[in-house]
Specification:
about 475 residues; alpha+beta; 9-stranded mixed beta sheet; 21 strands; about 35% helix
Length: about 475
């Protein structure tokens, strides 16, 4: 009898230490970080996109590698001249019961364009529509200022999903982010609880009846999946990276490309860095593997091309020369260009740790004085800067134009190829032109590619059918749980 009581106490103790209730049939438990916000158009973090990817259905899915468009909330996105575009919508309702109409999109996009949100440049710099109207409840009409074949890619951006009339009228974005109302396969039941999480209830074509989103530290969530008290962990910290392949060697882990990449941008108008030979010398002096294994904690891949996998049309064979680490060649190029020595590398918020590691490596590899400094709030820079780019869309146009802007690069041929790629009639033609533009940047090197981000997830034996996309990570609606 005493043995039975002791066993019962031990069982209760173990259950209590797990910090989680026993698994329930049809309920998927998911570990995530605290999202920065749940306002779709202002998102750039993986956790926020994971959640909003279940709460909203985008107009379409766009695959950058193939240029394939898969309609979702839209029935079609079409144009006969690439200037006038028509979007036909499928019937849908918001989680508050109000209809999703073409006007919902038009009003949402006007609000996004007027705000300083992450997705605002899609309208102000990329789409550049002269007019967006709703001629019918199920029809959106766009008239652009020039021919563009990139419209399906841009409109597929996860931040361009519709908002209900209630928040478009109130403009209370903070309150809405705590209790968002979407048009997707799951609704948020009872709002979001910072530091704790929230519960998603199925209202559409999702596999799990309910999804428990638990906010926590990735290392603890990884251990909870191993212990069987959590179904899915959506991030794997650096110290668990190598163990992941053994701990989840049955295939219950995934790695996917993120829409994020790091670069070293040179001030091409500054005399010290106006010579491409100098820029190539610095690029060859970067030990990208040391960044990946060190301060970036196995959350990135060393760059192999200028365009990261999440944004690249097709695959590039091999590693680009400026993506290689060759200290001797880099030092020789600086000597050839008579580089006077001495450089300051500037960094922005969140990039100090890996920039300082980069600077130490450059000094050692190239034998020149290199220091790191926080970027000033205004004024031109006299040295390179590290840039952490998180595109809002899967279109290469966004990233290539941004990188040119960061360095002050204005080459006429490059700009012409970029414009031709934007106007191209087919994804294949656009892809070829984007590669031409990328190759020119790799030759002139106003920016040196350093790394591209990737995500990790691990899951328990209860979970199956895990797929991922660059912007959402694991597609929650597609995951089945026993």
């Amino acid at each position: 009898m005493r043995l039975l009581v002791l066993l019962a106490v031990l069982v209760l103790a173990v259950t209590g230490c797990s910090g989680a209730d026993p698994a329930r049939p049809g309920v998927l438990s998911v570990g995530i970080r605290e999202p920065a916000t749940l306002l779709p158009a202002d998102l750039a973090d993986q956790a926020g996109r994971l959640v909003t990817g279940a709460l909203w259905t985008p107009l379409a899915d766009y695959d950058a590698a193939s240029g394939k468009v898969t309609p979702r909330a839209a029935e079609s996105i079409e144009s006969t001249d690439r200037v006038h575009w028509t979007v036909k919508l499928r019937p849908a309702t918001f989680h508050d019961g109000t209809p999703v109409t073409a006007q919902s999109y038009v009003d949402t996009w006007r609000a996004i364009a007027a705000a300083r949100w992450v997705s605002s440049p899609v309208f102000t710099k990329l789409l550049r529509a002269r007019e967006i109207t709703a001629p019918a409840p199920d029809t959106i009409a766009l008239t652009l200022d020039r021919p563009s074949g990139q419209v399906p890619a841009l409109l597929s951006a996860p931040g361009l999903v519709p908002l209900p009339a209630s928040v478009l009228t109130s403009r209370d974005w903070n309150a809405f982010a705590k209790a968002p109302v979407g048009n997707g396969p799951y609704r948020l039941d009872g709002g979001w609880h910072p530091g704790s999480g929230g519960t998603l209830k199925r209202v559409g074509a999702g596999k799990a009846e309910e999804i428990e989103l638990r906010v926590g530290e990735p290392g603890a969530q990884y251990d909870a999946v191993k212990a069987g008290t959590l179904d899915l962990a959506t991030e794997v910290p650096g110290e668990k990276h190598e163990a992941m392949h053994a701990d989840f060697g049955d295939g219950s882990h995934a790695t996917w490309a993120l829409p994020q990449a790091g670069y070293l941008a040179f001030p091409v108008t500054n005399p010290k860095f106006s010579d491409a030979t100098v820029r190539h010398g610095f690029a060859l002096g970067v030990d990208r593997a040391a960044l990946e294994a060190g301060p970036l904690a196995h959350q990135v891949d060393p760059a192999k091309a200028l365009l990261p996998p999440a944004d690249a049309p097709g695959e590039r064979s091999g590693t680009c020369r400026p993506c290689s680490f060759d200290a001797a060649a880099g030092k020789a190029l600086l000597k050839q260009a008579a580089f006077p020595g001495g450089a300051t590398v500037y960094f922005g918020p969140g990039a100090e740790a890996w920039t300082r590691t980069l600077v130490v490596g450059l000094h050692k590899a190239l034998d020149v004085s290199v220091t790191a400094q926080a970027s000033p709030n205004a004024g031109p820079l006299d040295g390179p800067s590290t840039v952490d780019v998180k595109p809002a869309t899967a279109s290469p146009y966004e990233l290539l134009s941004l990188l040119a802007s960061e360095s002050g690069y204005t080459d006429e041929v490059f700009m012409q190829n970029l414009a031709l790629a934007d106007a191209a009639a087919t994804p294949e033609e656009a892809g070829e032109l984007y590669r031409l533009a990328e190759n020119q940047l790799l030759r002139d090197l106003p920016v040196a590619p350093l790394w591209s981000g990737h995500g990790h997830a691990v899951w328990s034996p209860r979970v199956r059918d895990v797929t991922t996309t660059p912007f959402t990570g694991p597609v929650l609606a597609g995951i089945a749980v026993s």
